[in-house]
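Run folding on both entries below.
>entry_1
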Amino acid sequence: MRHGEKADRLAELADWVRDVLLAWPTAQRTIPRCWSRHWEVIEELSMLYCARSTAYLWEERTDHFACEYRDRWLPGALERLDVRLWPCAESHQPNGTRRDNAEPVDRSIAELRRL
């Protein structure tokens, strides 16, 4: 994948993280603002994005897909991210209201576009 395409996909993922995933309080506590600077986190979130899209948007979906996403994929991904990002969460995670990740995500997208 070329860097411009990576930037486009990261922007799409960032919109989903902001609009959908961060609606979950557990996700807000787990995912620090700097998530877009960690490629292994981008991989994990991308997998979760695909799993949710399959569970809720795929034409051949059934209730089973949504249940599996909520009971298995979402908690499992958040648990793995919590372990992986513990050091960042200690110093980067703000308390309080829903946050805006636009600045660090925009920096990551801009760097990809420059490459």
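>entry_2
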Amino acid sequence: MECPYCGAMDTKVIDSRPHSIDNSIKRRRECVVCCKRFTTYEKIEPIPIFVVKKNKIKEVFNRDKLLKGLERAVIKRNVNLEALERFVGEVEDTIRKTNHLEIESTELGELVMEKLKKLDEIAYIRFASVYKDFSDVKSFIKEIEGMVDSD
């Protein structure tokens, strides 16, 4: 690790501890040459997940894209941004636990809707109306009846 003060490449780790905010390791270091101390953060760079679209084109899973869609679904609902960020993290963790680095867009949509139904039913209907491309009121009624029947 290069010293930010003198540029020497010889530094030593004085203290290491987990940094809970972003799941990284915080390290206090000291330069062996100039004896100044500084802090570094070490974080694992995750392997990207690819979403396979209906047209078979692959794109990198985009947390922000999913978060924006969920934000639209929860407008004027009692769901805060932290809950949505946790939700997206849970979706990503669920995908990673399958040990597959690719997921079909339809499978991703079903996973999101399954989890969203538990978080907020109205947000679920809103999200489903876009995801399933409801074309009329009958589509809404059919989806709501399916929810009522499953309870």
